[in-house]
Amino acid sequence: MKLALEKFEYIIKKSRRTTISVQITPDQKLLVKAPAYTSIKEVEEFLREKRDWIIKQINRTKVTSQQAAQMGILSDKEIRKLKRDAKKIIPERVEYYAKLSGITYNRIFIRLQKSRWGSCSIEGNLNFNALLALMPLEVLDSVVVHELCHRRHMDHSKAFYDEVLKIFPDYKKWDKWLKQNGAAYQLRVGE
Ligand SMILES: [Zn+2]
Question: What domains can you pick out in the chain, each with its CATH number?
Answer without folding.
Answer: 2-71 (no CATH), 76-187 (3.30.2010.10)
